[in-house]
Amino acid sequence: MALVLYLPFYAHAWGFYGHQKINYYAVFLLPPEMLVFFKPQIDYLAVHSVDPDKRRYLLEQEGPRHYIDLDHYGPAPYVSLPRDWQTAVAACSMDSLVKYGIGPWWIQVMLERLTKAFMVKDPEQILKMAAELGHYVADLHVPLHACSNHNGQLTGQHGIHGFWESRVPELLAEKEWDFIIGPARYYRDPLSLIWKRVLQSAAAADTVLRIEKLLRAQFSSDQVYAYEERNGKLTRQFSSAYTVAYDQLLNGMIERRMRASVEAVASFWLTAWINAGQPPLRSLVRHPLGGDALLSMQQLEAAYKNSPIKGREHD
Ligand SMILES: [Zn+2]
User: What is the mean pLDDT of the chain?
Assistant: First the structure.
């Protein structure tokens, strides 16, 4: 029977688990002036890290913000693709850019929105934009978010997307990986950091796929999958032995990408705050959601629970 039937949780980049952990750990990299506001809101930042994935069930335009198929632009370093948005639109057309993903540029939009929220000292907007910026930044650290063979659909490796970004971290992150990471850094040129990280992702995509293929040849199919407990339910999924073996063959890649995500998320939060003139955050108070904000949150949840995904599926 097709694997997809058994893996309903694996539809989201880094999985919900990974995104929540990344935003959570990122808070601890912030300077005290930011920590004073961010730390008490750490649960909000973790929970709402996954809103952009939920929005993929609501809005058609949402999907392409989470990835970029760099291999569409020829071999690395993809010289046919201008890094600057306006130049890219002129060279490739907006429709084509949207078709193959606009992840790197969307991060710029979100960074500007967060900077503005800091400037006007709007606590709700600061948290919303910070939580969601964290999502997009983390997504582009995932190799299969920079590659058209994003779920192994072109190479008979269906399900590898969730395997790499959900199953492996869920099994190993808390038990074995290290999330003590140096302080957030200010980036004068955030766009070049985004491109650096997404090019690293694209370069790693080949290894992600090749290693799994190699490993598959060493395991019988009843060793690849197993019924194991997940969220309190017995679920057929990649077996623990297969998951651990994959992680070992990748030689720490997933841990490194997750750590790099944490560092980048915190650094982008810090960069927005500094660019906004380092407004004091101590006195900001978050009020419970009301009015339009509450309504749009309810719409998001309803779409996520009741509607099919619009655009690209990951499993
Ligand atoms: Zn995503």
Answer: 92
Give the span between the Cα atoms of 198 and 240, in whole angstroms.
Answer: 29
Tokens of 299: 């719409």
Q: What are 51-101's pLDDT values in tens digits?
A: 999 999 999 999 999 999 999 999 999 999 999 999 999 999 999 999 999
Span from the CA of 298 to the centroid of ligand 1 (angstroms): 19
- Ligand 1 geometric centre to CA of 196 (Å): 19
Q: What is the DSSP string of 53-72?
A: HHGGGT-GGGGGGG---GGG
**Cα of 283 from ligand 1 centre, angstroms:** 32
DSSP string, 102-146: -HHHHHHHHHHHHHHHHHTT-HHHHHHHHHHHHHHHHHTTSGGGS
- Cα–Cα distance measured from residue 177 to residue 260, given in angstroms and rounded to the nearest whole number: 13
pTM over 0.90: yes
Ligand 1 centroid – CA 95 distance (Å): 20
Average pLDDT over residues 210-239: 91
**C-alpha 222 to ligand 1 mean position (Å):** 31
Each domain of the chain, given as residue ranges in start order, spans 3-306
Over the stretch 107-144, which tens digit does the pLDDT of each residue have?
999 999 999 999 999 999 999 999 999 999 999 999 99
Fold (CATH) for 3-306: P1 Nuclease (1.10.575)
Q: From CA 32, how far away is CA 127, in angstroms rounded?
A: 17
Ligand 1 centroid vs 57 CA: distance in angstroms? 12
Cα-to-centroid distance, 314 and ligand 1 (Å) = 10
Ligand 1 centroid – CA 32 distance (Å): 29
Cα of 138 vs centre of ligand 1, distance in Å, is 8
CA of 153 to the centre of ligand 1 (A): 18
Question: Buried (b) or exposed (e) across 135-163, using 16+ Cβ within 10 A?
Answer: bbbbbbbbbbbbbbbbbbbeeebbbbbbb
